[in-house]
Design goal:
Blueprint (H helix, E strand, L loop, with lengths): L9 H10 L2 E4 L9 H12 L8 E4 L9 E2 L14 E5 L1 H11 L5 E4 L5 E4 L4
Helix pairs in contact: 1-3
């Protein structure tokens, strides 16, 4: 088994999510990060600190197939087959996608769990 760590930029990853090249396996839990966590993650990115692990699984091999679904907030056309499934890092990547690439506001919650709509700017 071969493990790789290709040098990808954040913008490349977000673009791949946008077009559906990276999707989630259907068993992943739903996205649910509040405003405070999103702001903290954006601060981490702007300061150049490591984001933590993001792990994907290439699709198309023989064996078990997982049903894919797009990340929350992306508008991938139905039937788009992903090249990779996001196995770890879904909360972070979905938050970054929604805040930086989706083109719309983020539907999240405040620190008390109340629904809010936010735009994030860098």
């Amino acid at each position: 088994m071969l493990f790789e760590s290709p040098p990808l930029s954040l913008s490349e990853l977000l673009d791949d999510i946008h077009v559906g090249k990276i999707q989630l396996p259907d068993f992943q839990r739903p996205w649910k990060w509040d405003d405070e966590r999103i702001v903290s993650l954006l601060a981490t990115v702007t300061l150049g600190y490591p984001l933590g692990v993001v792990m994907t699984l290439r699709t198309g091999g023989h064996g078990t197939r997982f049903k894919p679904r797009p990340l929350s907030g992306s508008h991938v056309p139905p039937g788009t087959e992903p090249a990779e499934l996001l196995m770890d890092g879904q909360q972070r990547m979905t938050s970054l996608y929604q805040a930086l690439r989706s083109g719309g506001p983020v539907e999240t919650t405040d620190s008390r769990g109340r629904p809010i709509t936010r735009w994030y700017y860098l």
